[in-house]
Amino acid sequence: MSPEEWTYLVVLLISIPIGFLFKKAGPGLKRWGAAAVGLGLTLFTCGPHTLHSLITILGTWALIQAQPCSCHALALAWTFSYLLFFRALSLLGLPTPTPFTNAVQLLLTLKLVSLASEVQDLHLAQRKEMASGFSKGPTLGLLPDVPSLMETLSYSYCYVGIMTGPFFRYRTYLDWLEQPFPGAVPSLRPLLRRAWPAPLFGLLFLLPSHLFPLEAVREDAFYARPLPARLFYMIPVFFAFRMRFYVAWIAAECGCIAAGFGAYPVAAKARAGGGPTLQCPPPSSPEKAASLEYDYETIRNINCYGTDFCVRVRDGMRYWNMTVQWWLAQYIYKSAPAHSYVL
Protein backbone atom coordinates (compact mmCIF):
# COMPACT_ATOMS: atom_id res chain seq x y z
CA MET A 1 0.00 0.00 0.00
CA SER A 2 1.17 3.50 -0.82
CA PRO A 3 1.55 6.24 1.83
CA GLU A 4 -1.57 7.94 0.45
CA GLU A 5 -3.60 4.74 0.86
CA TRP A 6 -2.41 4.38 4.45
CA THR A 7 -3.46 7.98 5.15
CA TYR A 8 -6.91 7.39 3.68
CA LEU A 9 -7.30 4.23 5.77
CA VAL A 10 -6.26 6.00 8.98
CA VAL A 11 -8.68 8.89 8.32
CA LEU A 12 -11.53 6.45 7.67
CA LEU A 13 -10.83 4.39 10.78
CA ILE A 14 -10.50 7.46 12.99
CA SER A 15 -13.90 8.70 11.82
CA ILE A 16 -15.63 5.68 13.42
CA PRO A 17 -14.83 6.42 17.12
CA ILE A 18 -15.29 10.15 16.41
CA GLY A 19 -18.77 9.32 15.15
CA PHE A 20 -19.73 7.63 18.41
CA LEU A 21 -18.58 10.75 20.28
CA PHE A 22 -20.75 13.06 18.17
CA LYS A 23 -23.82 10.83 17.97
CA LYS A 24 -25.52 11.99 21.20
CA ALA A 25 -24.19 15.55 21.11
CA GLY A 26 -26.41 18.59 20.68
CA PRO A 27 -26.92 20.37 17.35
CA GLY A 28 -24.34 23.08 18.07
CA LEU A 29 -21.59 20.66 19.07
CA LYS A 30 -22.39 18.41 16.12
CA ARG A 31 -22.28 21.29 13.64
CA TRP A 32 -19.13 23.05 14.80
CA GLY A 33 -17.34 20.01 16.22
CA ALA A 34 -17.77 18.02 13.01
CA ALA A 35 -16.68 21.07 10.98
CA ALA A 36 -13.61 21.58 13.17
CA VAL A 37 -12.58 17.92 12.76
CA GLY A 38 -13.14 18.08 9.00
CA LEU A 39 -11.22 21.34 8.63
CA GLY A 40 -8.40 19.93 10.76
CA LEU A 41 -8.17 16.85 8.55
CA THR A 42 -8.22 19.04 5.45
CA LEU A 43 -5.45 21.30 6.73
CA PHE A 44 -3.37 18.31 7.83
CA THR A 45 -3.62 16.48 4.49
CA CYS A 46 -3.89 19.43 2.07
CA GLY A 47 -1.90 22.17 3.78
CA PRO A 48 -2.06 25.55 1.98
CA HIS A 49 -4.03 23.93 -0.87
CA THR A 50 -7.05 24.09 1.46
CA LEU A 51 -7.44 27.57 -0.03
CA HIS A 52 -8.94 26.00 -3.17
CA SER A 53 -11.87 24.58 -1.23
CA LEU A 54 -12.43 27.89 0.57
CA ILE A 55 -12.52 29.84 -2.71
CA THR A 56 -15.04 27.35 -4.14
CA ILE A 57 -17.29 27.65 -1.07
CA LEU A 58 -17.21 31.45 -1.00
CA GLY A 59 -17.93 31.70 -4.73
CA THR A 60 -20.90 29.34 -4.48
CA TRP A 61 -22.32 31.12 -1.44
CA ALA A 62 -22.07 34.47 -3.25
CA LEU A 63 -23.99 33.04 -6.23
CA ILE A 64 -26.68 31.64 -3.93
CA GLN A 65 -27.13 35.03 -2.27
CA ALA A 66 -27.14 36.93 -5.56
CA GLN A 67 -29.38 34.68 -7.68
CA PRO A 68 -31.33 32.20 -5.53
CA CYS A 69 -33.86 31.53 -8.30
CA SER A 70 -31.22 30.29 -10.76
CA CYS A 71 -28.27 29.40 -8.53
CA HIS A 72 -28.24 25.72 -9.49
CA ALA A 73 -26.99 26.32 -13.03
CA LEU A 74 -24.66 29.09 -11.86
CA ALA A 75 -23.15 26.95 -9.11
CA LEU A 76 -22.74 24.06 -11.55
CA ALA A 77 -20.87 26.31 -13.98
CA TRP A 78 -18.75 27.91 -11.24
CA THR A 79 -17.71 24.73 -9.41
CA PHE A 80 -16.86 22.78 -12.55
CA SER A 81 -15.01 25.74 -14.06
CA TYR A 82 -12.93 25.99 -10.91
CA LEU A 83 -12.43 22.23 -10.97
CA LEU A 84 -11.08 22.55 -14.52
CA PHE A 85 -8.72 25.30 -13.36
CA PHE A 86 -7.76 23.17 -10.36
CA ARG A 87 -6.86 20.23 -12.62
CA ALA A 88 -4.77 22.49 -14.89
CA LEU A 89 -2.62 24.02 -12.12
CA SER A 90 0.48 22.06 -13.10
CA LEU A 91 0.06 23.11 -16.75
CA LEU A 92 -0.12 26.74 -15.64
CA GLY A 93 3.11 26.45 -13.67
CA LEU A 94 1.34 26.70 -10.29
CA PRO A 95 1.97 24.39 -7.30
CA THR A 96 0.39 20.97 -7.81
CA PRO A 97 -2.12 20.07 -5.08
CA THR A 98 -1.86 16.86 -3.07
CA PRO A 99 -4.05 13.86 -3.98
CA PHE A 100 -6.06 14.54 -0.82
CA THR A 101 -6.86 18.06 -2.06
CA ASN A 102 -8.22 16.51 -5.25
CA ALA A 103 -10.51 14.20 -3.25
CA VAL A 104 -11.77 17.05 -1.05
CA GLN A 105 -12.40 19.25 -4.09
CA LEU A 106 -14.37 16.56 -5.91
CA LEU A 107 -16.68 15.86 -2.95
CA LEU A 108 -17.06 19.57 -2.28
CA THR A 109 -18.16 20.17 -5.87
CA LEU A 110 -20.95 17.63 -5.48
CA LYS A 111 -22.09 19.09 -2.15
CA LEU A 112 -22.13 22.72 -3.31
CA VAL A 113 -24.06 21.99 -6.51
CA SER A 114 -26.57 20.06 -4.42
CA LEU A 115 -26.83 22.91 -1.89
CA ALA A 116 -27.50 25.43 -4.64
CA SER A 117 -30.21 23.20 -6.07
CA GLU A 118 -31.85 22.83 -2.66
CA VAL A 119 -31.84 26.61 -2.16
CA GLN A 120 -33.34 27.09 -5.62
CA ASP A 121 -36.09 24.56 -4.83
CA LEU A 122 -36.83 26.44 -1.60
CA HIS A 123 -37.03 29.76 -3.44
CA LEU A 124 -39.37 28.35 -6.10
CA ALA A 125 -41.55 26.71 -3.42
CA GLN A 126 -41.84 30.05 -1.59
CA ARG A 127 -42.85 31.82 -4.79
CA LYS A 128 -45.52 29.17 -5.49
CA GLU A 129 -46.76 29.50 -1.92
CA MET A 130 -47.17 33.26 -2.32
CA ALA A 131 -48.89 32.85 -5.70
CA SER A 132 -51.39 30.34 -4.27
CA GLY A 133 -52.39 32.54 -1.35
CA PHE A 134 -49.95 31.12 1.20
CA SER A 135 -51.35 27.58 1.02
CA LYS A 136 -48.44 25.31 1.85
CA GLY A 137 -47.56 22.51 -0.53
CA PRO A 138 -45.54 19.37 0.16
CA THR A 139 -42.34 20.08 2.11
CA LEU A 140 -40.54 16.73 1.89
CA GLY A 141 -36.84 17.42 1.46
CA LEU A 142 -37.14 21.21 1.45
CA LEU A 143 -34.81 23.38 3.51
CA PRO A 144 -36.33 25.54 6.27
CA ASP A 145 -34.35 28.59 5.12
CA VAL A 146 -31.30 29.64 3.11
CA PRO A 147 -28.07 28.65 4.92
CA SER A 148 -25.82 31.43 6.14
CA LEU A 149 -22.14 31.60 5.23
CA MET A 150 -21.08 29.91 8.48
CA GLU A 151 -23.70 27.18 8.02
CA THR A 152 -22.45 26.63 4.48
CA LEU A 153 -18.88 26.34 5.75
CA SER A 154 -19.89 23.88 8.47
CA TYR A 155 -21.66 21.68 5.90
CA SER A 156 -18.77 21.87 3.46
CA TYR A 157 -16.10 20.94 6.01
CA CYS A 158 -18.11 18.36 7.97
CA TYR A 159 -15.71 15.46 8.52
CA VAL A 160 -18.29 12.88 7.39
CA GLY A 161 -17.23 11.70 3.94
CA ILE A 162 -14.96 14.69 3.40
CA MET A 163 -12.43 12.68 1.34
CA THR A 164 -14.12 9.47 0.26
CA GLY A 165 -17.85 10.14 0.39
CA PRO A 166 -20.59 9.18 0.65
CA PHE A 167 -22.21 12.28 -0.80
CA PHE A 168 -25.09 13.70 1.24
CA ARG A 169 -27.46 16.63 0.82
CA TYR A 170 -27.67 19.63 3.13
CA ARG A 171 -31.15 18.40 4.13
CA THR A 172 -29.61 15.09 5.29
CA TYR A 173 -26.98 17.04 7.22
CA LEU A 174 -29.70 19.14 8.91
CA ASP A 175 -31.68 16.04 9.83
CA TRP A 176 -28.58 14.66 11.55
CA LEU A 177 -28.06 17.87 13.50
CA GLU A 178 -31.72 17.96 14.57
CA GLN A 179 -32.23 14.26 15.31
CA PRO A 180 -34.89 14.32 18.08
CA PHE A 181 -33.67 11.32 20.09
CA PRO A 182 -30.25 10.26 18.77
CA GLY A 183 -29.71 7.80 21.62
CA ALA A 184 -32.61 5.72 20.30
CA VAL A 185 -31.05 5.39 16.84
CA PRO A 186 -29.11 2.09 16.58
CA SER A 187 -25.46 2.33 15.57
CA LEU A 188 -23.35 -0.56 16.86
CA ARG A 189 -25.30 -3.47 15.38
CA PRO A 190 -25.81 -1.84 11.96
CA LEU A 191 -22.11 -0.94 11.96
CA LEU A 192 -21.04 -4.53 12.67
CA ARG A 193 -23.41 -5.87 10.00
CA ARG A 194 -21.95 -3.44 7.47
CA ALA A 195 -18.31 -3.86 8.46
CA TRP A 196 -17.93 -7.65 8.56
CA PRO A 197 -16.96 -8.12 4.84
CA ALA A 198 -14.31 -5.36 4.95
CA PRO A 199 -11.42 -7.54 6.33
CA LEU A 200 -12.11 -10.15 3.65
CA PHE A 201 -12.11 -7.52 0.91
CA GLY A 202 -8.88 -6.14 2.38
CA LEU A 203 -7.17 -9.53 2.04
CA LEU A 204 -8.57 -9.93 -1.47
CA PHE A 205 -7.03 -6.55 -2.30
CA LEU A 206 -3.58 -7.28 -0.83
CA LEU A 207 -3.15 -10.70 -2.45
CA PRO A 208 -3.64 -9.77 -6.15
CA SER A 209 -1.86 -6.45 -5.56
CA HIS A 210 1.19 -8.41 -4.44
CA LEU A 211 1.04 -11.05 -7.19
CA PHE A 212 0.00 -8.67 -9.99
CA PRO A 213 1.36 -5.22 -9.08
CA LEU A 214 -0.02 -2.30 -11.05
CA GLU A 215 3.49 -0.85 -11.42
CA ALA A 216 4.38 -3.72 -13.77
CA VAL A 217 2.26 -2.29 -16.59
CA ARG A 218 4.49 0.80 -16.67
CA GLU A 219 7.59 -1.26 -17.47
CA ASP A 220 8.76 -1.95 -21.01
CA ALA A 221 9.05 -5.66 -20.26
CA PHE A 222 5.29 -5.87 -19.79
CA TYR A 223 4.67 -4.96 -23.43
CA ALA A 224 7.01 -7.69 -24.58
CA ARG A 225 4.52 -10.25 -23.28
CA PRO A 226 1.96 -11.82 -25.64
CA LEU A 227 -1.35 -9.99 -26.02
CA PRO A 228 -3.41 -12.71 -24.26
CA ALA A 229 -1.11 -12.46 -21.22
CA ARG A 230 -1.52 -8.68 -21.10
CA LEU A 231 -5.29 -8.98 -21.40
CA PHE A 232 -5.36 -11.56 -18.60
CA TYR A 233 -3.31 -9.21 -16.40
CA MET A 234 -6.19 -6.74 -16.48
CA ILE A 235 -8.45 -9.13 -14.57
CA PRO A 236 -6.55 -9.25 -11.24
CA VAL A 237 -5.60 -5.57 -11.52
CA PHE A 238 -9.22 -4.47 -11.81
CA PHE A 239 -10.25 -7.01 -9.18
CA ALA A 240 -7.82 -5.38 -6.73
CA PHE A 241 -9.14 -1.97 -7.77
CA ARG A 242 -12.68 -2.99 -6.83
CA MET A 243 -11.64 -4.54 -3.53
CA ARG A 244 -9.81 -1.36 -2.54
CA PHE A 245 -12.89 0.75 -3.13
CA TYR A 246 -15.09 -1.75 -1.34
CA VAL A 247 -12.96 -1.42 1.80
CA ALA A 248 -12.82 2.38 1.60
CA TRP A 249 -16.54 2.87 1.03
CA ILE A 250 -17.59 0.35 3.67
CA ALA A 251 -15.31 2.09 6.18
CA ALA A 252 -16.77 5.46 5.17
CA GLU A 253 -20.30 4.13 5.66
CA CYS A 254 -19.32 2.77 9.07
CA GLY A 255 -18.14 6.25 10.05
CA CYS A 256 -21.60 7.58 9.17
CA ILE A 257 -23.39 4.77 11.00
CA ALA A 258 -21.32 5.33 14.15
CA ALA A 259 -22.55 8.95 14.25
CA GLY A 260 -26.14 8.01 13.41
CA PHE A 261 -25.66 10.05 10.23
CA GLY A 262 -28.22 9.28 7.51
CA ALA A 263 -30.44 7.16 9.78
CA TYR A 264 -34.13 7.29 8.85
CA PRO A 265 -37.12 5.09 9.71
CA VAL A 266 -37.58 2.26 7.25
CA ALA A 267 -41.09 3.64 6.56
CA ALA A 268 -39.48 6.72 4.97
CA LYS A 269 -38.07 4.53 2.16
CA ALA A 270 -34.84 6.48 1.89
CA ARG A 271 -32.74 6.38 -1.28
CA ALA A 272 -28.96 6.45 -1.50
CA GLY A 273 -27.89 10.08 -1.72
CA GLY A 274 -31.40 11.52 -1.79
CA GLY A 275 -32.79 10.56 1.59
CA PRO A 276 -36.46 9.90 2.44
CA THR A 277 -39.00 9.56 -0.36
CA LEU A 278 -42.03 9.43 1.98
CA GLN A 279 -43.03 11.84 4.72
CA CYS A 280 -42.42 10.28 8.13
CA PRO A 281 -43.34 12.36 11.22
CA PRO A 282 -40.58 12.53 13.85
CA PRO A 283 -41.13 10.49 17.05
CA SER A 284 -42.58 12.39 19.98
CA SER A 285 -40.81 10.45 22.75
CA PRO A 286 -37.70 8.31 23.29
CA GLU A 287 -39.90 5.23 23.61
CA LYS A 288 -41.52 5.81 20.23
CA ALA A 289 -38.13 6.55 18.68
CA ALA A 290 -36.72 3.30 20.08
CA SER A 291 -39.68 1.32 18.71
CA LEU A 292 -39.00 2.42 15.14
CA GLU A 293 -36.92 0.41 12.70
CA TYR A 294 -34.13 2.41 11.05
CA ASP A 295 -31.91 1.97 8.04
CA TYR A 296 -28.90 3.77 6.59
CA GLU A 297 -29.83 3.59 2.92
CA THR A 298 -29.27 7.34 2.54
CA ILE A 299 -25.50 6.99 2.98
CA ARG A 300 -25.13 3.59 1.30
CA ASN A 301 -22.48 3.98 -1.36
CA ILE A 302 -21.78 0.47 -2.62
CA ASN A 303 -23.62 -2.78 -3.21
CA CYS A 304 -20.70 -5.17 -3.44
CA TYR A 305 -22.66 -8.25 -4.47
CA GLY A 306 -24.70 -6.34 -7.03
CA THR A 307 -21.58 -4.76 -8.53
CA ASP A 308 -19.71 -8.04 -8.99
CA PHE A 309 -22.58 -10.30 -10.02
CA CYS A 310 -24.94 -8.04 -11.95
CA VAL A 311 -25.83 -9.02 -15.51
CA ARG A 312 -26.33 -5.61 -17.12
CA VAL A 313 -23.88 -2.72 -17.27
CA ARG A 314 -26.68 -0.37 -16.21
CA ASP A 315 -27.17 -2.32 -12.98
CA GLY A 316 -23.44 -2.31 -12.33
CA MET A 317 -23.40 1.50 -12.57
CA ARG A 318 -26.41 1.71 -10.25
CA TYR A 319 -24.71 -0.38 -7.54
CA TRP A 320 -21.34 1.39 -7.78
CA ASN A 321 -20.82 4.75 -5.99
CA MET A 322 -24.56 4.88 -5.39
CA THR A 323 -24.81 8.33 -3.81
CA VAL A 324 -22.93 9.91 -6.74
CA GLN A 325 -25.14 8.03 -9.20
CA TRP A 326 -28.14 9.65 -7.51
CA TRP A 327 -26.40 13.05 -7.72
CA LEU A 328 -25.81 12.60 -11.45
CA ALA A 329 -29.41 11.55 -12.07
CA GLN A 330 -30.88 14.37 -9.97
CA TYR A 331 -28.68 17.33 -10.85
CA ILE A 332 -27.33 16.53 -14.32
CA TYR A 333 -29.59 14.16 -16.28
CA LYS A 334 -32.93 15.55 -15.06
CA SER A 335 -31.86 19.17 -15.47
CA ALA A 336 -30.29 18.73 -18.91
CA PRO A 337 -31.87 20.99 -21.57
CA ALA A 338 -32.50 17.98 -23.86
CA HIS A 339 -33.44 14.64 -22.33
CA SER A 340 -31.40 12.61 -24.75
CA TYR A 341 -31.07 8.86 -24.29
CA VAL A 342 -27.44 9.11 -25.40
CA LEU A 343 -26.76 11.80 -22.76
UniProtKB/TrEMBL annotation:
Keywords attached to this entry: Acyltransferase, Endoplasmic reticulum, Membrane, Transferase, Transmembrane, Transmembrane helix
Residues passing through the membrane, by range: 6-22, 34-64, 76-94
Gene Ontology molecular function: lysophospholipid acyltransferase activity
Catalytic activity: a 1-acyl-sn-glycero-3-phospho-(1D-myo-inositol) + (5Z,8Z,11Z,14Z)-eicosatetraenoyl-CoA = a 1-acyl-2-(5Z,8Z,11Z,14Z-eicosatetraenoyl)-sn-glycero-3-phospho-(1D-myo-inositol) + CoA; 1-octadecanoyl-sn-glycero-3-phospho-(1D-myo-inositol) + (5Z,8Z,11Z,14Z)-eicosatetraenoyl-CoA = 1-octadecanoyl-2-(5Z,8Z,11Z,14Z-eicosatetraenoyl)-sn-glycero-3-phospho-(1D-myo-inositol) + CoA; (5Z,8Z,11Z,14Z)-eicosatetraenoyl-CoA + 1-hexadecanoyl-sn-glycero-3-phosphocholine = 1-hexadecanoyl-2-(5Z,8Z,11Z,14Z-eicosatetraenoyl)-sn-glycero-3-phosphocholine + CoA; a 1-acyl-sn-glycero-3-phospho-(1D-myo-inositol) + an acyl-CoA = a 1,2-diacyl-sn-glycero-3-phospho-(1D-myo-inositol) + CoA
UniProt record, GO biological process: lipid modification; phosphatidylinositol biosynthetic process
Keyword flag Lipoprotein: no
Cellular component, GO, one term: endoplasmic reticulum membrane
Stated family: Belongs to the membrane-bound acyltransferase family.
Record-given protein name: Leukocyte receptor cluster member 4
UniProt organism field: Rhinopithecus roxellana
Lineage, top ranks: Eukaryota, Metazoa, Chordata, Craniata, Vertebrata
